[in-house]
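Hi support team,

I submitted a single chain yesterday and got back a structure, but I'm not sure I'm reading the token output correctly. Could someone confirm the output below corresponds to the sequence I sent? I've pasted both exactly as they appear in my results page.

Thanks,
R.
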Amino acid sequence: MHRLTRDQARRIAVQAQLLEADRPDDVVGIAEQLGAIKIDPTATIAPAEHTILWSRIGSAYDRAQLSKAVESDRLLFEFDGAFRPVSLLPLMLPAMRRWPRRESSRQWLEANDRFRTEVLARLRAEGPLLAGQIPDTADVARAPDGWSGSNQVVHMLDFLHRQGEVAVAGRHGRHRRWDLAERVYPPDLPEYDDEEAERLLNERRLQAAGIAKQRSPWTPVGDAGEPATIDGMRQKWRVDPEALTALENDGDGRAAFLSPYDGMLFDRPRLRELFEFDYVLEQFKPKPQRKYGYFAHPILMGDRFVGMLDAEIDLEHDELRVRAVHEFEPFDEDEHAMVHAEIADLGEWLSVDVPEW
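Hi R., thanks for writing in. Yes, this is the structure output for that exact sequence:
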């Protein structure tokens, strides 16, 4: 049983998310550690997948590195709204083959068996294709769900994707290009049964988190890693033994601006318990109810969240407009300098000016 202070637990979490002072420089290596790089088009600064990588690498990050890793090298693949390392694919396939579990989804697939066959045949003959290039010949329609319209091709491709029969071969702008999974995913992947795959997935989730509650629905890790307690907390935790090396390194921290969809922020209960940060994304709040801004980026300083960056790129004038840096507690001189330096790095990466603010 490892007995940790809250400071130690935070350092483990920050190191696991590659947000230390020593920056990584390899997109695939980052994906291997994090497990998933969220995709989202909201681009007040830049789309989430790119901001997440910039937060780790800094201005040396080139967006072409991500597209190369996904579309040319095939070392990353897109699934369920995130780019993931191919090493995770064989661990995910057993669950994909069991999908769907919901009866209504099974009934829709059964009712549209002819439509399913036609979509697969079209991809085999002509793929890769955009959804709009595939005719909608569904016999039974699913009602619009607020995220997708009435085109049933989108639903069928999503279902086939979750079953591992089709895959995203690349993107045309923000639109996905679809193809048969056998032409996108590597051949001869290792096979795992359900139990072994879940055990290995739990280990990878804990690797990305560093430390997580043993029975967390946000970061399910099962019995991966080793047991731990945290001073002043009654919950049982699991810690990645390799992440404990963070406690041996007493390096300096740095400022990091995190996309609202950064994996560091996903486990909201852990964020409150370890970092005392009650994060709320204000994107979907009415403007009068926003405190920090539509898509404000949390500011991590070392192992503490210290404020929020409200900024937006102005492409017409090639500027990054900083509306506000909200300080939870007044910054000292060094903290101001670190935040200013990170804003300058952000402007350099975006290749825009940063007016005085």
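A quick pointer for reading it: The chain has a mean pLDDT of 95. Let us know if anything else looks off.

Best,
Support desk
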